[in-house]
Fold:
Amino acid sequence: MKILTKHFFVGILFLLFACESEIIEFPPPDPFYPTVYSALSAPEMAEKLNLLNEIKDTADVVELDQFGYVNVTSFFPDTFVFNAHNIRQLSFEKINRYSSFLGLNKLPYNEFQELFNFLFLVTAWDLKSSDDGDVDQSILEYWDYIEEILICSMRQKSFNNYVLEWSAIEISFLDDKKGMRIYGQWFSDIYIPENDAIKLDDALNIVIHDCYDKMPSGEFSFNIESMIQNSSKVIRIIDKNDGFEFRICWKVLYQGGYYYIDTQTSEILKGYRYSYL
Structure:
């Protein structure tokens, strides 16, 4: 195990960063990178709304966000029995109806059905029990209380075998239990470059250099083996102007925090450690 203190590491850092041009002369990023989702233009939004009106249920209240993703409020009929079976069936029906406005339309049907496997876990659970918070432990992975509202999240955990952070479609119930809301997004079009301009070694050097610049005085240590073993490549969604970008990043864990290093541009997209990073 290699643990380098700040004092010992000064010599290494000098060799790594003595020539600043060496640290910034990476290969150019892929010209098709990154994938950008921008707000729809007025004509694009009008076209989307026309398509939505063609398939919407007249009992639903629907609206589109600036990117064309739908937010559905569906009110239960007076005869609706609020139990797990009916909720499962209605959820599948609504998400299937609005799949193209949730980003699910490009999924193969078998994968689309797999998204609903979680709903079968609630077969024996009467959702009325949520009134007193009595939730079956086996379903807590999928259902949770957020501000006293029961919410189910279908998380898009990966894209092309890369971890995709912070993407989900959610189902929640209205306070009076007379309806449900469905909202969120699933991403099917993300460009993945064939080659990384920034290798893992480059990312580690960037992290170490940044830590060295920003650490308070005193000793600190780098467990290089641990940093390598706990590093992974992920897709990070980054807000950008009137839209957002999908960045392929090295996620480098470091004691007390982590860094996201763009694999094409070498940018530090997010890095923190306690209060001084």
Notes: Confidence is low (pLDDT under 50) at residues 1-23, 119-149, 272-277.
